[in-house]
Automatic annotation (TrEMBL):
Statement: the UniProt record of this protein carries the keyword Cytoplasm: no
Membership in a protein family: Belongs to the TonB-dependent receptor family.
Annotated compartments: Cell outer membrane
Protein name per Swiss-Prot or TrEMBL: TonB-dependent receptor
Organism name: Hymenobacter ginkgonis
SUPFAM superfamilies linked: Carboxypeptidase regulatory domain-like (SSF49464), Porins (SSF56935)
Bilayer disposition of the protein: Multi-pass membrane protein
Family matches, as Gene3D superfamilies: Carboxypeptidase-like, regulatory domain (2.60.40.1120), TonB-dependent receptor, beta-barrel domain (2.40.170.20), TonB-dependent receptor, plug domain (2.170.130.10)
Length: 860
């Protein structure tokens, strides 16, 4: 009876609302009378919306008595119209004014839309994606939407447990440039040391930017160093923040995994709770201030108890716990009719707990005898212990600038400052050399990266030069700082030298005063590019860029591109470019002693800085820039009025990639005696050790048709990717040591940055208040080598996502669903030999199984 009383008001409300609704139909065309496919049509003041089909038509069941529709599309000026009694006809003008443009990454022309671009660009509507899927953070959203993008969570990877590395087209995390509102964003201070992605690389932590603050994400899948600068070898990810006003959106989300392979009988774990709100206010004519607050709490998963494997290396194995709080601002402040100021940016504070390897109470010695574990203590931990590596991460960036039109020239001057600080802690641990008197928690130190960028961009469009010429030029000054700071003495000190017992905090030895470093450098870059419409059908584009770094010198890159429209429905396009990536300050200066666990035995390894005493002694040269050559060729078009498609093949050759070498020890016949003389047991280094060649294909096919009274959008997106290590270069003194310097195991980690193929098939159906989404993602298999040099062949996997949604009222929508509905896992292998100490490495679709979620979305 109580349940009936609760349901009755809802049914009455729904009935009243339905009685007031009526069906609206219409068509959206451009200025030339051609249909605009995929335009967004939203009933103002509600969460009710739809999109146009292949003929530019739409059907929408209105929920208000006098509906007004807001119609928008990328590359066009938005329009608001009132619904009359008959079909609604909307003509969208091209968004080509200096202050109202929608500029897509990959072109500096204010008249260029994404469909005109000679380079492949993905446009992801974040509002649509977050409304219908279970993923909450940006990395996971892109992992399951953009086939060329790869990211996953890791465990047993020290800092990478807290910062998810991400790659584009299977290259390194630091080979993709990240922009926010078109401005360079700072990288994380973390260097990835473990896991299947990003070993030896730094990268931008996309999860510091809340999805609730993002309007869309643009992915330029093409080399763009000449256009945007260092790091853009694989492409560019541009995050565009929200600009909406007079509208409050709020979301509450919760999901959890169906627990499996635990030591206990819990049914669910990894609970993920997220709540966010976004609101904007209008300022003057065309101005706004848009604010976002986001809170996300994620609990541990536990996947340590996998059956039918050869042994358990860890009692705690799974996703880290994380508490993420963010606040973001985007604003545009009119100064005059043609000039405005802007300020945007935000802060993110993250607290994390990650599992380290178990220290069991006893171990087996070289003679096969069971003895007390020298890295534990029976008084403090009678049953052994599981250290927790904690993180305290502060990330923030702000950009302020002014932009205006002066005599037909668009001028944009800005300054942005960003910082990422990563502070380690260790809990539930000990310093074994202190015995039972040891503390159990430690401050382990950390590192920080800061960046200040002054940016000037100037462009002008000459409409009378042939069919249009856009000229752009500008300059960028960037200063970077990197520092590494020590932890407390007990986190790294050996209080019993000569005892054979390892000192420092178990799980993560703290940074020592000898590791501390403060480094900085300056960079100046200038560029020029031009885009010429030779005819209405033929576009040519060229760009050149010069950059100078104070720590390694200068570099010049260039790019040419073209697009040829063979008809209104079919175009060819292609690009050629050179690129480069400067070694990051973190790669040059990072150094530490870290603990690796091989076959259940902890081993302390020195990672020396690039110009450190051990690196110099064994002949490791100074890091230099990575250089690339890339090309792409493809076509894009429409078949009839309902089908659109793009297909692009690509080639990327990178020379002198910076990687983390294999491990050398005192038994090495070349440098072993040098390591022994420096009292170093084992060591790894950063080096320009490899050259790689990548071949690939991206394809996207989309179809929108009416099914019954509803609309079905079907999307097939695929990425085929093959990376080859074409050359391994050692130092002169280590010639012949290629198998150790960068052998098959390390090469396999580079190749596993992307599966050989990833295919996404999505069906999205909307009918009135009801919506349904079904998505299939096929991940190709990858191959890795474990610590025994055995091949771990992770087979292909197909995951299935399902989501159902219903508009409870005009302002509230409820969504329920599941990611990885059929509970698929990677192939199981020997936990005693994998990189992570679990039954699988962090590959493909993740290792947590089925995820169930519910979302309540409000829009006022």
């Amino acid at each position: 009876m109580k349940h009936s009383l609760l349901i009755l008001p809802l049914l009455v409300t729904s009935s009243v609302v339905c009685a007031q609704t009526r069906t609206l139909t219409g068509q959206v065309l451009d200025a030339d009378g051609r249909p605009v496919i995929g335009a967004t049509v939203v009933e103002k003041g509600t969460n009710n919306g739809t999109g146009t089909d292949g003929a530019g038509r739409f059907v929408l069941r209105a929920r208000t008595a006098q509906p007004r529709l807001v119609v928008s599309a990328l590359g066009y000026a938005g329009q608001e119209v009132s619904a009359g009694d008959g079909p609604i006809a909307v003509r969208l003008a091209t968004g080509n004014t200096a202050l109202e443009d929608v500029q897509v990454v990959g072109s500096r022309s204010l008249n260029r839309t994404v469909t005109d671009s000679p380079s492949p660009v993905d446009i992801i509507d974040v509002r649509e994606v977050t409304a219908k899927t279970g993923q909450l953070d940006v990395n996971q959203l892109l992992q399951f939407v953009a086939p060329s993008f790869n990211s996953n969570r890791q465990t047993g990877a020290d800092g990478a447990d807290h910062v998810d590395p991400a790659t584009l087209r299977g290259l390194g995390p630091d080979q993709t440039l990240v922009l926010v509102n078109g401005k360079r964003w700072h990288q994380s201070s973390l260097v990835n040391l473990f896991g299947s992605r990003g070993r030896g690389n730094t990268g931008t932590d996309l999860n510091t930017i809340p999805a609730a603050s993002i309007e869309r994400i643009e992915i330029l899948r093409d080399g763009a160093s000449a256009q945007y600068g260092s790091d853009a070898i694989a492409g560019v990810i541009n995050i565009v923040l929200k600009t909406s006003t007079k509208e409050l959106t709020a979301n509450a989300n919760y999901g959890a995994y169906t627990a499996k392979y635990r030591f206990d009988d819990k049914n669910f774990d990894g609970g993920n709770f997220n709540v966010n709100a976004n609101y904007g206010v209008a300022v003057g004519k065309g101005g706004f201030v848009n604010l976002t607050a986001d809170y996300n709490q994620r609990e541990h998963t536990q996947r340590a108890n996998v059956p039918n494997t050869e042994g358990i290396q860890r009692r705690e194995y799974g996703d880290p716990k994380a508490l993420n709080t963010s606040a973001y601002l985007n604003s545009k402040l009119p100064i005059s009719e043609n000039i405005y100021a802007y300020v945007f940016g935000g802060i993110n504070v993250r607290k994390g707990d990650a599992y380290a390897y178990t220290r069991f109470p006893t171990v087996t010695d070289a003679n096969g005898n069971t003895i007390p574990n020298p890295r534990s203590n029976a008084v403090l931990y009678p049953n052994g212990f599981d250290p927790i590596i904690s993180s305290s991460i502060f990330d923030g960036q702000g950009v302020a600038g002014v932009r205006g039109n002066f005599g037909g020239w668009d001028v944009d001057l800005s300054n942005g400052f960003g910082s990422n600080r990563f502070h380690y802690g260790v809990r539930n641990s000990l310093n074994a050399t202190l015995g039972a008197t040891s503390p159990t928690s430690f401050d382990a130190g950390g590192f920080q990266l800061q960046q200040d960028v002054v940016d000037l961009n100037i462009s002008h469009n000459y409409k009378t030069v042939l069919q249009g010429l856009n000229v752009a030029f500008g300059s960028e000054y960037r200063r970077e700082w990197y520092s590494l700071f020590a932890g407390e003495a007990a986190s790294y000190t050996n209080y019993a030298p000569g005892s054979g017992i390892a000192g420092g905090a178990q799980g993560f030895p703290g940074f020592q005063p000898r590791n501390e470093v403060k480094a900085s450098r300056n960079n100046v870059g200038v560029y020029a590019d031009a885009e010429l419409d030779v005819t209405k059908a033929w576009l040519v584009e060229g760009a050149v860029r010069y950059e100078h770094y104070t720590d390694f010198g200068s570099n010049v890159t260039g790019k040419v591109a073209t697009r040829l429209k063979l008809s209104d429905n079919f175009s060819l396009r292609g690009t050629l470019s050179t690129g480069f990536r400067a070694p990051s300050l973190a790669q040059i200066n990072f150094n530490t002693v870290f603990t690796n666990v091989v076959g259940g035995k902890p081993i302390d390894i020195l990672l020396d800085r690039n110009d450190g005493p051990v690196s110099r002694a064994v002949g490791i040269p100074a890091l230099t820039q990575e250089r690339s050559k890339s090309a792409s060729v493809g076509f894009t078009g429409r078949a009839g009025s309902i089908l659109s498609f793009t297909v692009d093949g690509y080639y990327i050759h990178i020379k002198d990639r910076i990687v983390l070498t294999g491990t050398f020890d005192q038994s090495d016949n070349v440098i072993g005696s040098t390591l022994a003389g420096l009292n170093v047991g084992q060591a790894q280094f950063f080096a320009n050790a490899a050259s790689t060649t990548t071949w690939g294909l991206d394809a996207v096919v989309a179809n929108t048709i009416g099914v019954g009274s509803g609309r079905l959008t079907t999307t097939l997106a695929a990425n085929l990717n093959r990376l080859l290590v074409t050359d391994v270069k050692t130092t002169p003194g280590l010639a012949g040591k290629e198998d150790v310097f960068f052998g098959q195991r390390e090469q396999a980690f580079v190749k596993a940055s992307a599966p050989p193929y990833k295919i996404n098939l999505t069906f999205d159906y909307n009918l009135g208040r009801f919506g349904a989404l079904v998505r299939f993602v096929e991940f190709g298999g990858v191959k890795l080598y474990d610590y025994n040099e055995d091949l771990n062949d992770y087979g292909h996997r197909l995951t299935t996502d399902v989501a159902l949604s219903y508009a409870l009222t005009n302002q509230l929508r409820l969504s329920l669903g599941s990611s990885n509905l059929f509970n698929k896992y990677p192939t199981f292998f020997n936990p005693q030999a994998t990189e992570t100490g679990g039954a699988w490495d962090p590959v493909q679709m993740g290792s947590n199984g089925r995820f169930l979620f519910a979302k309540l979305q409000a829009r006022f």
